[in-house]
Amino acid sequence: MMGTGVRIAMVAGEASGDLLASHLIASLKAKLPGARFYGIGGPKMEGQGFESWYPLEKLAVRGYVEVLRQYREISGIRNALKRRLLSDKPDVFIGVDAPDFNLGLEHALKVRGIPCVHYVSPSIWAWRGKRIHKIGASVSHVLSLFPFEPALYEKEGIPVTYVGHPLADVLPLEDGRSSARTLLELSPQRPVFALLPGSRQSELGFMADTFIATAAEIHRKLPEALFLVPLATRETRMQFEEALYRCQARELPLRMLFGHSHEAMMAADVVLVASGTATLEAALLKRPMVIAYKMAPMSYRIMRRMGYLPYVGLPNILANKFVVPEFLQDDANPENLAQAMLNLYADKESCERIQQVFHGIHLQLRQNTAEKAAAKIIEFLPAGAGNAAVAA
């Protein structure tokens, strides 16, 4: 069997990395059906046959203060993983995003002769640009998702390949609002808002109450509105339910969904979304959105001082302008968010312009990503495995 004996270690540190890595594993398996994949990953990776040695959720922490609180546990996992990989070396290591965890691990593996490919460029264009030197010392190759990134690495002599974003390959180019409403049994005329307060429990801790209060404010002004809340795990669903009790908002016309985030966004007139990969998903689904984010005050002060761009949301970064509104920290309050959502709902011309920008972004990112990434990774495998894969 082609690829038999090939061992590929991977680490993904959050839900978005789990999704990216699952597409990559599927593409690699098609070329190397006998390969073994292991390390740290989530349920989507495991669905592709990945062996996860530690739960992905242990790494899914954002913000300086939050990471410091769990530093000892995270550091212990990294050290144990490093020892295990060095004692039984894989053919290649793939770090999927999570640079604060992966770069140090990649450096330790690279100096011991293990090729290391980092999939998803750290956001050096947004903040902490000096990390590029650490990246160059730690990895054998960078696979970048966005078209403006390769020039930054090429300037420093760091091998890089632009592969596009896999979500642009799998999400439809056309607007799926009508079919999504049919699937969810929603009236075509009813005002629908999707609320995506984050995939991590730590994010919900900061965002859930604000998103619920925003829905209550919208409902007060638009009583016929319906709110869809897709939640990724049992734990985040329970956490959101607790927030509904705490906010005394159980009477809101709100439907929680287990997963189905794409369907919820497609069905919505406007999406309220926590900053992160979900903002890109909403853009690729052509949905007008309002971006919000909160974190520990100290973490926010540190990150604000280190930032280079006037925006944090991926849609605005890719467009290089404010296409959709963003509200951070104290500005991300229910009154501001509700008004911005209602403004977009009422302004159909603005929504059409936003959708046209998002369509252009979608075309730019649609690059058959998993195939391009897999082909580059195979170049780092032992010659026999790589040749067999190319022949396939």
From TrEMBL:
Enzyme class per UniProt: transferase
Protein name (Swiss-Prot/TrEMBL): Lipid-A-disaccharide synthase
GO cellular component: membrane
Domain of life: Bacteria
Pathway participation: Bacterial outer membrane biogenesis; LPS lipid A biosynthesis
Catalysed reactions listed for this entry: a lipid X + a UDP-2-N,3-O-bis[(3R)-3-hydroxyacyl]-alpha-D-glucosamine = a lipid A disaccharide + UDP + H(+)
Enzyme Commission number, as recorded: 2.4.1.182
Gene coding for it: lpxB
Function as written in the Swiss-Prot or TrEMBL entry: Condensation of UDP-2,3-diacylglucosamine and 2,3-diacylglucosamine-1-phosphate to form lipid A disaccharide, a precursor of lipid A, a phosphorylated glycolipid that anchors the lipopolysaccharide to the outer membrane of the cell.
